[in-house]
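User: Run a structure prediction on this.
Assistant: Running it now.
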Amino acid sequence: MIHPTLQSQGNAEGSTPVVLLTGADRLSTDSVAFSLVDSCPSVCSISYDVRPNGAVESGLDIIRNIVRPQASGVAFGESDSFGLEECCLSCTVKHDLERVLESLCGQAGVFLVSLPVGLEAAPIAQYLADSFRINEWGESMFVGAIANAVGLDEFEERFFDDDRLCLYGMGEADGVYDERSTGAVVSRLIREASCVLELPVVGAGCLARHLDADGECKCRDIIRAIASADALICEDAHTVGLADVVRKTSGVVSPLL
């Protein structure tokens, strides 16, 4: 897999960061996204999800939600859905996201993009970086970070799970599954991230479910071992703002944040 080079202070010509947020489960991703949005009034939030749709050839619909910043402090969102018509989910999302960012250029201080469950951000980040360089509308933008949301409550179960990753639904009847194992996806998302945002354990949390629990949780150590050596590891996602994620991972202090 080719990893993009996040634009550092030396090569980020734009002033509007685009942060890509990944996760292996929707609950953790949404929780981190809500926290990051709350930290920045000028953020435009874009999220993608999948739903089954037997009426289209691929069997999948992509749901896109956009919430723009409002001067009044009251945010209004819009939702749209379209069939997965391209060769893969990654291509469909990156091409749609490019069009959306072009249409929203200049309307936000930062864009937070929550990708579908399990989708890797590196190919999308590389595509966007190339698009920003060759298109005039993209001169004001740069890929600020690839952030990964990790819920510690169920991290151990997911990390060691060799069953297929569930992208949507609760079972075979309405479930949408990735061909990759849950554990493989969890590892790849952590490894590609420039910033790992951990959601703290609630109560006894994962420790109560460890098969060999000896009073100490090793989940954070596992995450650090998987993550890139220069990745920012945040042990409580709710204490980190979007400005921190961009500044600490790309070295850029955006005047719009």
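The two ends are 31 Å apart (CA to CA).
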